[in-house]
Amino acid sequence: MTTAVVILNWNGRDLLKQFLPSVIRFSEGANIYVADNASTDDSVSFVKQNFPQVTIIQNRENGGFAKGYNDSLSGLTEDIFVLLNSDVEVTENWQKPVLEILKNEPKTAVVQPKILDYKKKDHFEYAGAAGGFIDKYGYPFCRGRIFKTLEKDYGQYNDDVPIFWASGACFVIRKNVYQEAGGLDEDFFAHQEEIDLCWRIHNLGYQIKSCGAAMVYHVGGATLDSMNPRKTYFNFRNSLYMLLKNVPSANVYTILLMRMVLDGIAGIKFLAEGKFAHLYAILQAHSAFYRNFKKINSKRKRNSKTEKYFQIKSIIWSYFCLSKKEFSKLK
Q: Which of 236, 261, 274, 275 has the most other CB atoms within 10 Å of its CB?
């Protein structure tokens, strides 16, 4: 199997300077690409001058994570695509156990390594940890991370297990499955588009796994900080998009209604905390959802529906009411 490691970049010269050397050093046998989303800094010239072994792909516009990767991957011929954030430090032999799973398990289409926090390396990182799940209402959580509670890594998630979604921070996928599933949904722009893609991949009958023997370190928030209201907007809007597209017809409107109630509670919490920009972001997210309802709803016809998509009914209830802060306690 041939492998393409593709790093999407937008004005990330400093991140490339810091993290690209580890990718080059520890990605033996892979072809390495920097896919530039129409940067206005000197990212492209910097890579050309300092890392001539890296191939540059220049996209015509900044179409976000989804369109950026769709455009970048469309012309590549490798068997395996690794979608890798520019703020990820890879480790020695990080590829080998991931590729072994794909080699030995034909029905496994996507694999994610264990993702630890670059700034606190004995703890899991927010964007993926040791593999992701969602609850009935579309709220994501991970082995090793529930909401903002990040577990310390004791090796408790070193096994290779099926998961519902793999993190876009380090997302390893078969090229043919990426194409069969239709790639990332460009209406999402950024955030949760990898969960939507994984849902469609499950619908096709494939499996997604976390690989505990592979490990990378992720800075997180390098492109859009978690306290940025723009991130709140994308997360709330895209979660509604994802539910409308993918929840089975018998339940979709009930679940969307309940989700709107829960989003309203989140808005009240932001109001009480004085985070008015985040409250406004939720209102904007819902407004965008209503405006685009017909367009997103039309995509339902293209998807078969996975009935059992959720790990538990409500992660909010488990976390805030039952004080189950660790993944192992959810069971």
A: 236
Q: Give whole-number Cα distances, 52 to 18, 158, 258, in Å.
A: 16, 36, 52
**pLDDT for 203-233, tens place per residue?**
999 999 999 999 999 998 645 556 789 999 9
What is the location of CATH 3.90.550.10 in the chain? 3-218
SS3 content of the chain, % helix, strand, coil (to 5): 40, 20, 35
Question: What are the CB-based long-range contacts (under 8 Å, 24+) for 119-122?
Answer: 119/219, 120/150, 121/217, 122/152, 122/153
Q: CA dist 9 to 44, 82, 169, 227, 308, Å?
A: 9, 14, 13, 21, 35
Stretch 295-308: mean pLDDT, rounded?
Answer: 80
- pLDDT value for 250: 85
Tokens representing residue 13 in the block: 């010269």
**Range list of H helices, the chain:** 13-26, 43-50, 64-73, 95-104, 175-181, 193-203, 229-246, 252-272, 276-291, 293-298, 315-316
Distance CA 5, CA 246 (A): 29
Mean pLDDT across the chain? 95
Paired sense of beta strands 149-150 and 145-146, if any = antiparallel
Tokens of 260: 């709107």
In this prediction, residues 30-59 reach a mean pLDDT of 97
Residue type, 179: Q
Rounded to 5 degrees, φ, ψ at 112 are -120, 130
* Distance (Å) of CA 285 to CA 195, 237, 279: 18, 4, 10
**Neighbour-count burial of 106, counting CB atoms closer than 10 A to its CB (0-12 exposed, 13-18 middle, 19+ buried):** exposed
Reported as a single tens digit per residue, the pLDDT across 70-99 is: 999 999 999 999 999 999 999 999 999 999
Q: Quick one: angle between helices 193-203 and 229-246, nearest 10?
A: 20
Query: What three-state secondary structure class fits 173?
Result: strand
CATH number of 3-218: 3.90.550.10
